Amino acid sequence: MAPSDNPVALVTGSAKRLGKQIVSQLHQTGYRVIIHYHQSGAEAQSLADTLNQQRPDSAAILQANLLDEQAVKQLATQTLACFNRLDVLVNNASSFYPTPLSTATHQQWDDLFGSNVKAPYFLAQALAPALHETKGCIINMVDIHAERPLQDHNIYCMAKAALLMMTKSLARELAPTIRVNGIAPGAILWPSQQLAEADKADIVQQIPLKRIGTPEDIASTVLFLLQSSYISGQIIAVDGGRSLGAAQKA
What we know:
By secondary structure, this protein is of the alpha/beta class. The protein has helices at residues 17-28, 41-54, 69-83, 106-134, 154-173, 197-205, 215-227; strands at 8-11, 32-37, 59-63, 88-91, 137-141, 179-185, 235-238.
């Protein structure tokens, strides 16, 4: 396959953390990649430079505030201008923080639903025609807490639940040419907010495999879904068994 024929993937929120690993692994398997970022411009440029040194003209960066309707439309347009095709959309960008009912605000609602549901939905809408042409895929980063609520994170959990249903709904609507699936991570990376060691230990105790996962676990699941041509409308939990719940004693 000529380099100009290599498939193209857009991964939102991919300058750091899970998104960076997804981009790197897709690139390693031959994809041309589009690194989306909001504020992490230096990290996005550094990643693109590294990937382009490995394979010239194989990585691009695009900036967009996914809470801005016009910016989302522009991101879709610029995405198609990068390599003149699109095969994969990974909706990875996400806000995450607690919102206890007593203090939750309209701004927090708009932020959490905007980044986790609205932007992925309208990116899918804008990019569906290009994905139809390539018989492409959409992969949404859901969360095990879309079905098992996390204490004091009610708005985030509701947003991820909406993304879960969006995944299933679009899998029906966009078939047979576009497959749509989701990944529900458990504890993969500790959150950016400081977490006490005791809290980390408590989380690990909830995981049957007794360890947190790695970004590579998520990236390899992305690749699995891209290579599995008969899977659509599914949510794969990558959580070490945590979503099974606590073991019951006899």
